[in-house]
Target: 3-oxoacyl-ACP reductase
Amino acid sequence: MKTDAQPVALVTGANKGIGLAITQQLAARGYIVYLASRDEQRGAEAKASIERLGLDVRPIRLDVTDADSIATAAGRLQDEVGSLDVLVNNAGIAGQPLPPSQCDAQTLREVYEANVIGPVSVTRRLLPLLRAGHRRTIVNVSSELGSLTLHSYPDFPFAPVNLLAYCSSKTALNAFTVLLAKELQGENFRVNAVNPGFTATDLNGFTGKRSVERAAEIVAKYATLDASGPTGGFFTESGMLPW
Model:
């Protein structure tokens, strides 16, 4: 049962990796957290792993590439809690690691469907619930690989990661962040993109150097901003990133 004092959050792609760690950290802060995943069984297993820590979350099936799934999830939220305080658009895929000259249209479609159209569709459907909430916070989990400015620097540490589909999808997600923040000015929303850093997840074959727990802390910081917090920014552990 939700109380007026309990904020409600939904995290997409939350059955593993950074998403699972974000869910755990928000639950530990007293949020009612909907653990959204494409696969119900994996969602149930993720819920069980968090419950072993003495925390309670609510698994919910949500495939960000499926309009019916998004609509069903929105309907359940409306019925159970009636509002949403925090949306973390975390779900995403890497796609085929192809440079610009070799990237085919199908790879672009698949990556953009999950990494751009998915967050846009989820946000659009859940916006009425966010407007009914008190905290009105949206975090889009992005990447420094989406920064055109950083890619233009020859000494950028990740310059060799020149993958058209993934990198440009995060650039597009950043654009969505800026434009949505601008649209929602005056409604007390906080809409930000956050780079959790090069984290050991299955997205990169667990080659990342950062733990999912630390990555989740960075995202959770911007998911729990108060009313005076920034909006329309692109943030990382050390502060703002260039677009």
The mean pLDDT is 94.
